[in-house]
Amino acid sequence: MKPKYLKPAIFLACLLPVARLAWKAFRAALGANPIQVITFSTGTRTLVFLLVTLSITPLRRLSKLYWLIQYRRMLGLFAFFYGCLHFLTYLWLDQIFRPAQYL
User: Fold this and answer.
1) Per-residue CA distances from 74 to 8, 52, 78 (Å)
2) Domain ranges of the chain
3) Alpha-carbon 50 to chain mean position
């Protein structure tokens, strides 16, 4: 049996790390090197969401909970979202969009 309100709850739970990061940035509580904190945080979240997404299929097969498969795409998109945030943090905040530096 699949819980009815599980998908919105998972969606909101996946947004909590970026909301927490934004709250800490708004309050200037990211520490002495905020770019490093943002980069490491988004990179860690990317890896966590990627591993959770990849573990759904074996978990579904072992536990016979076939309704778990419908959450795999949403979690994969959140992994992509945090990966894009990680890449943009590096490119925008750390490297300041200097493409001439690499030519």
Assistant:
1) 11, 11, 6
2) 33-97
3) 8
Question: Which residues are CB-contacts of 53 (< 8 A; sequence separation ≥ 6)?
Answer: 72, 75, 76, 79
Tokens of 95: 């490297």
What is the chain's length?
103
Tens-digit pLDDT profile for the chain (103 aa)?
567 889 999 999 999 999 999 999 999 999 999 999 999 999 999 999 999 999 999 999 999 888 888 999 999 999 999 999 999 998 888 888 776 666 6
Q: Global pTM? A: 0.88
Q: Which residue type, as a one-letter code, is found at position 6?
A: L
